[in-house]
Specification:
- The protein is mostly helical.
- The chain has two domains: about 80 residues; about 45 residues.
- α1 crosses α2, α1 runs parallel beside α3 and α3 crosses α5.
- It is globular, with a radius of gyration of 16 Å.
- The relative contact order is 0.12.
């Protein structure tokens, strides 16, 4: 995927996730994130969340938390919501995060088609095939960005 500071997303640690959070926060709210407490505590709970849920579930959950809350949101608040399944996505978290955070308009349009096809109550065989094609295209885009 997109390398930030020369590091691919899959190699991120808690410090990199915190930097990614501040980048997403400033992109959404048009102001810098001010820490609500001790940075070391944020890093500790991010590390624990990565160990429990996985890196991309944490990144996609932080993305969702930033986009569904006001500018007073904190890392601690979002990560506490993970226990109750708030902010977690039912889709592939790696693909979800990469599309939402780094996708261009064309990729996001494919994602919307994928979500609509996935939401059908009684999907036909042709809609399932179309959904698989779109998922394959999105995964190819994601893997091409990673390398």
């Amino acid at each position: 995927m997109v390398k930030r500071d020369g590091k691919p997303l899959s190699d991120y640690n808690s410090q990199d996730v915190r930097k990614e959070f501040t980048w997403l926060y400033s992109r959404k709210h048009h102001k810098d994130y001010t820490n609500k407490g001790f940075i070391g505590y944020d890093l500790k709970i991010i590390k624990q969340a990565i160990e429990k849920y996985g890196l991309f579930k944490v990144l996609s959950g932080l993305y969702n938390g930033i986009n569904t809350n006001s500018d007073s949101v904190s890392i601690k608040y979002i990560l506490k919501g993970f226990e109750f399944k708030y902010y977690l996505t039912k889709y592939n978290p790696e693909l979800y995060y990469k599309v939402k955070a780094y996708g261009n308009d064309k990729v996001k349009a494919y994602w919307r088609k994928y979500v609509l096809l996935d939401a059908k109550w009684f999907p036909t065989a042709s809609s399932e095939q179309q959904k698989k094609k779109i998922e394959t295209k999105l995964l190819e885009w994601s893997n091409a960005k990673e390398s």
